[in-house]
Design goal:
globular, binds cytidine-5'-monophosphate, five-stranded parallel beta sheet, three-stranded antiparallel beta sheet, alpha/beta, Rossmann fold
Amino acid sequence: MTDAPLQTSLPPVLTIDGPSGSGKGTISRHVAQRLGWHYLDSGALYRAVGISASWNDIDLSDASALVRCTFDTVIDFREDDGGEPRVIVNGVDATDELRTETAGAAASAIAAIPEVRAALKDAQRAYRRPPGLVADGRDMGTVIFPDAAIKVFLTASAEERAERRHKQLSDKGVSVTLPGLLREILARDARDANRAVAPLRPADDAVRIDTTGLSIETVVERVLALMQ
Ligand code: C5P
């Protein structure tokens, strides 16, 4: 299933996978900060390719053009002066556009194309640098870093995930309806879980944490406790 070499000399990796809205991004960022490790938001790579395709009028059904677009897209993670993460796509700050449900849906569609996933594999593994990496996504523990020291799979009820996303978007002044968001989240879950390549599923050795009703701090502490 994997072609990753099992080398113990590589820097350690903690993988945090799960469906959209399960809190992966927030938890991973906090955990990485506490450990002083690097952080990879792998979903941002798929989202960046999705918006780069839309900027270039590439149809989401044109697999070969999307593969070319994946190789041509330059993605840079930075922090602004206030320490907030920004994602620069082909030289343009695309942070806000990346977080929209339209970008999420485009990412989910292109993420089902095996050649796009293959094209992003080495790029993701390149983030593994000392002193360690916290990587969040759908297949971090199953495909990209199968030798990760600790694997976590976060879940939460679909309703709570939709509510979290609703709050995130409302805070940014984006107006969306809760039932519409819930429908989009369920559709994306189904597509991510049922695709042929790297479907969303916990690694056999992943620790599952249901974050429904739990605070960010509680989940961060639970994840950190696994590192002991
Ligand atoms: O995590 P995020 O919601 O930003 O991911 C957007 C989409 O990118 C997901 O719905 C999924 O289809 C795809 N993705 C993936 N594998 C990853 C990360 C994201 O297929 N490792």
